[in-house]
Amino acid sequence: MAETCPKSPLEANIVRILRNEIKYQSEYAPYQQPVTQYKSFTVQDHPGEQWITMRGKFGDDEEIKIEVTMFDGYEVVPKPGDDDSGEDVRLHISLLVDISKGDDSEDLEFICSAWPDCLEVQNVYILRRDKKLARPYMGPDIRKLNSNFQKRLGEFLEARGINDELSFFLHDYMMNKDRAELVGWLKNVKCFVEKIE
Predict the structure, then answer these.
(1) CB 179 within 8 A of CB 29
(2) Per-residue confidence (pLDDT) for residue 39, from 0 to 100
(3) Distant-in-sequence, close-in-space partners of 10: CB < 8 Å, separation ≥ 6
(4) Is residue 55 within 8 Å of residue 36, measured between CB atoms?
(5) Residue 135: which pLDDT band, with cuts at 50, 70 and 90?
(6) Considering only CA atoms, which of 127, 124, 149 is closest in space to residue 136?
(7) Burial track 82-100 (b if 16+ CB lie within 10 A, e otherwise)
(8) Cα 60 from Cα 102, distance rounded (Å)
(9) Contact at 8 Å (CB) between 132 and 111?
(10) Alpha carbon of 142 to those of 1, 81, 162, 163, 170: distances in Å?
(11) pTM for the complete prediction?
């Protein structure tokens, strides 16, 4: 495929820089084809967007839908090892977990945080399928409730495959998606600059 020649030295320089960056990103940390299955869940990527959808079943009547953001936050933590100097970042991913019984009535919805090494439940609430409530009561911050209740919610999700291992998988998946989205964005910008008249 023949490339359009930029009309100005500035455009030619931008295209050259973009081409070099695309090459570097593709060679430094090559993008892997995303998986479409993780354990009992199907994984649906949304190229060009900052989220994925996972779907699964539990038992005969429960349907599970998980919507997952790309990295949307971080916290600063001490670097591991003997040297106490220096800091590292711990990346955060948000999850919205919907569990329905398939009877068109209500869903149990969990708002979760996926850290590299653990999954935390923040809120749980009932979501009506008819969506008549514009702003449903979101429930309390689960992390502030009785530890036994928190443990039981964790076990409920664990039985459905929503656990620390899923969190670890999502961090790997999103690192790969982040690389793919960056290269795609660079290519789109390069194409746009090449079309400028």
Answers:
(1) yes
(2) 95
(3) none
(4) no
(5) low
(6) 127
(7) eeeeeeeeebbbbbbbebb
(8) 10
(9) no
(10) 55, 32, 16, 16, 22
(11) 0.84
Pairing mode, strands 62-69 and 87-100: antiparallel
Q: Hey, what are 89's tokens? A: 């970042």
pLDDT-derived band at 69 (thresholds 50, 70, 90) equals: very high
CA distance linking residue 184 with residue 48, whole number of Å: 8
Burial 33-61 (b: 16+ CB within 10 A, else e): eeeeebeebebebeeeeebbebebeeeee
Contact 20, 187 (CB under 8 A): no
pLDDT band at 10 (very low <50, low <70, confident <90, very high): confident
Structure token digits, residue 172 = 């790997």
**Is residue 81 pLDDT above 80, yes or no?**
no
| Strand residue runs (E) in the chain | 37-38, 41-45, 51-58, 62-69, 73-78, 87-100, 106-115, 118-128
- Whats the size of the chain, residue-wise? 197
Q: What is the mean pLDDT of residues 7-25?
A: 90
